[in-house]
Write a structure and sequence with these properties.
Elements lengths: L2 H14 L7 H30 L6 H28 L8 H7 L12 H29 L2 H24 L9
Helix pairs in contact: 2-3, 2-4, 2-5, 3-6, 5-6
Amino acid sequence: MSTAQSAKEAHTRGRLGTPTDLKPEAVRDISAALQGLLADVFALYLKTKNFHWHMSGRHFRDYHLLLDEHGEQLIGMTDPIAERARKIGGTTLRSIGQIAKQQRILDNEAEYVDPQDMLAELREDNKQLAAIMREVHGVCDARGDVATASLLEVWIDETERRTWFLFEAGRTGPGAND
């Protein structure tokens, strides 16, 4: 980062800073981790809605409703993540371009994806999101931010539930009720 960029960021923090007992390094590290997490949640939300909108096949209704529920959970996380960064004196995402630069959850722009492949891809994406949240939790633990860590614990549990449901919905073969 250039000296000019650092000065501009310090000026912005001065204008948007929020009183907190967290050290400036903690605010910087936690806010950066939350920005990355927010980008990934938006990416997974859009992929989930993409698959919801383009679902087909004999289990259409069940999968369509499942993915709608998952999308609601994901979009419901976005505001608390962004507001948490602001509460501690940091900043958050400002554009779709910034999301695209920071996301680790990959997009899927294929014209057609088989329903079982949709479920499998979303299952793996949710597993990845849980791992990312655990990393952010580690940053929060290291910097003494119990409030953000507490929110993450709930979201990790919800993400593991989505992973489980996607796994069970996508099961085929022995033990599956097709």
